[in-house]
Amino acid sequence: ERRLVMVPGPINYEPSVLRELAVSGLDHTSPEFVEIFADALGKLREIVYAGKEHQPVVIAGTGTLGMEASVTNFLTKGNRVLVVSNGYFGDRFKELLSRYPVKTDVLRPDTIGNGVEASRIIEVVEKEGYDLVTLTHVDTSTGVLQPIREVGKKLRNTGTILVVDGVCSVGGEEINLVEDGVDVLFTGSQKALGVPPGLAIIWLSPKALEKLKELKEPLSPYYMDLKKWVEVMRSYEEKKPVYFGTPAVNLVVALRKSLELILREGMENRVRRHMVLSEAFREAMKALGLGILASEKYTAHTITAVKLPSGIDAGLLVSFARSAGVAIARGLLKEVNYFRVGHMGPVNANDIIATIAVIERALYRQGYLSRLGDGLLRAQEVLARHG
Ligand code: PMP
Questions:
Q1: Which among 195, 224, 235, 325 has the fewest CB atoms less than 10 Å away?
Q2: What is the pLDDT of residues 103-151, one digit of tens each?
Q3: pLDDT at 25
Q4: Taking the domains of the chain in order of start, what are their residue ranges?
Q5: 194: left (phi > 0), else alpha (psi -120 to 50), else beta?
Q6: Which atom of ligand 1 is nearest to the CA of 197?
Q7: CATH number of the domain at 266-385, please?
Q8: 137-153 burial, b for 16+ CB within 10 Å, e for fewer?
Q9: What is the per-residue DSSP string for 251-265?
């Protein structure tokens, strides 16, 4: 059945990427797979403008595995962490860290939909001297994009490790590991990277790699021991694979294909496409009289959270859309009446138009709109302006 998946991941995948999943006869130490894995690791560096000194790591698991590995490997008992949280996924860091013997403080914006000022983060870090700081680049629950660079530049020459959750941003938003001063970045395969769920991908800076070597008694569980995984990745890149846990062979082959498509488009073009399509979508929602949850200064381009008037049922809207062939998502926060639309990966203008059309019909049926087409008209104008 054909369905447009516009939830913030999983997404609709390119057929050419999905076909790669059907390969057979590739075991994890075969020369063919070794070449493919090494190539994928090189391409992973390219999409975040990283050099050879950075080490990407690909592990079977979800984004949450990437999250847990990204913090536990750089912490030891008694360390202090600052979590900058703009929503549900920022808060997940706090929940996760509560299972480990560290002390965690949380910094939140003044209101839901805002990000946290870089100057405020820097001030708190300088005063308290944290061992590790987490930023959620795009919080999928609010559609808030938290800028990284100013904080990264400040922390670059300190002992503090900067961890960035890029699950809802890598492959859709601009991110430059070197310029942004990120020590540990992670994502999952199923969003803007355009590969089915099942891979956690982590990038480590030279500073992070050094820390990994030095830190005595890190809190990382066995499977998440990045020292072991870094060794595995390096061995594949040297074409002499060593074994720790069986790589998710088929997903890695699909990842390589998707990265090839991404680099063919070019990261700059890809980021621009996400900007234009998200602008068309946001403008359409505003033309329907709906508000965007994220403030203008902190708007993400991979996902939009749309506020609804109190009389409109988000659940009904989402189920109408689904029955009309477009999957969109309910809100994740209880405090706000809203829904979420993901627009990332291979998404195009036709997908955006179809999504707006379905939302308009749903709102019309609930009696919120008395006329159809205002959102579509506005989106058309934005799309036409950008060619
Ligand atoms: N962080 C962010 C920002 C996310 O959007 C998600 C998934 N929605 C996660 C972490 C967790 O990823 P996963 O569901 O793949 O474990």
A1: 325
A2: 999 999 999 999 999 999 999 999 999 999 999 999 999 999 999 999 9
A3: 87
A4: 15-265, 266-385
A5: left
A6: 15
A7: 3.90.1150.10
A8: bbbbbbbbbbbbeebbe
A9: HHHHHHHHHHHHHHH
Bond before 10 cis per omega within 30 degrees: yes
* Pair 339, 274: CB distance under 8 Å: no
User: What is the three-class DSSP state of 139?
Assistant: strand
Q: Scanning the structure block, which residue is given the tokens 């033309």?
A: 287
Q: 8 C-alpha vs ligand 1 centroid, how far in Å? A: 9
So what's the pLDDT on residue 130?
98
Residue of the CA atom closest to atom 2 of ligand 1: 167
Nearest atom of ligand 1 to the alpha carbon of 139? 3
Six token digits for residue 298: 């902190």
How confident is the model over 159-206, as pLDDT tens digits?
999 999 999 999 999 999 999 999 999 999 999 999 999 999 999 999
Q: Does domain 15-265 have CATH number 2.40.290.10?
A: no
Pocket, ligand 1, Cβ cutoff 6 A: 9, 62-64, 67, 89, 136, 139-140, 165, 167-168, 188
pLDDT for the residue 387 = 76
CA of 46 from ligand 1 middle (Å) equals 22
| 15-265 and 266-385 agree in CATH topology | no
pLDDT of residue 255: 98
Residues of the chain with pLDDT under 50: none
**Atom 4 (ligand 1): residue with closest C-alpha?**
167
Give the number of the atom of ligand 1 that is nearest the alpha carbon of residue 137.
Answer: 3
Between the CA of 129 and the centroid of ligand 1 the distance, in Å, is 28
Q: Of the residues 89, 96, 191, which should be mutated to test ligand 1's pocket, given the most ligand atoms within 8 Å of the CB?
A: 89
Q: How far is the CA of 344 from the centre of ligand 1 (A)?
A: 14
